[in-house]
Design brief:
about 180 residues, mainly beta, six-stranded antiparallel β-sheet, four-stranded antiparallel β-sheet, 1 helix
Length: about 180
């Protein structure tokens, strides 16, 4: 059994905002015999309580993993399976609540929680991995109802031994999938 590598981190983002091309890791070397397979990835809110008033209602989180930086134009592009640079997707729903005790988001029955990514089984990460993320919720997008939240993520990678010719093909696949972007 090969060793696995887990990468963890977090980022801060306001509700109703978008984070694009957040680097999870980048690999540059002359060794063309190394790649990684994403075995699993998870994302969850570290900050469930809001720092400002929160509207009651639905709260949606969308995220994707990509093998290259991508031009994410809006909310819908984060879940776009036609861009083969994207190799993993996650969507999870929450309930946004405003109470006298605290303003918070609560899991809407996501299973499992933390939310798991759907991972394309036919991929090899040959040069790097990036995260794209956004949230949208009921209510206005003013700063008083769009507080900052910290989100955690964890990615589990398995190293893969590659033939140099195979690596070159994966590098092409990782970069050259959408000629418009």
């Amino acid at each position: 059994m090969s060793k696995k590598l887990s990468l963890r981190g977090n980022f801060l983002l306001a509700d109703n905002a978008m984070l694009t091309n957040h680097p999870i890791f980048e690999y540059e070397a002359n060794d063309l015999t190394r790649g990684w397979v994403v075995e699993a990835a998870y994302i969850w809110p570290r900050t469930t309580r809001a720092s400002a008033g929160t509207d009651n209602g639905q709260y949606q989180m969308c995220a994707s993993l990509a093998t290259d930086t991508a031009r994410i134009l809006d909310f819908e592009f984060i879940s776009d399976a036609t861009d083969n640079r994207q190799i993993g997707w996650c969507q999870a729903g929450y309930q946004s609540r405003n109470s006298a005790i605290a303003d918070f988001i609560a899991n809407s029955g996501n299973s499992p929680n933390p939310a798991a990514f759907v991972i394309d089984p036919e991929h090899v990460v040959a040069n790097g991995l990036w995260l794209n993320f956004t949230t949208v919720k009921d209510g206005s997008s003013s700063p008083t109802v769009s507080p900052d939240r910290t989100w955690n993520y964890m990615v589990i990678l398995r190293p893969k031994k590659l033939d140099p010719k195979e690596t070159i093909l994966h590098l092409i696949k990782n970069f050259a999938q959408d000629v418009d972007n």
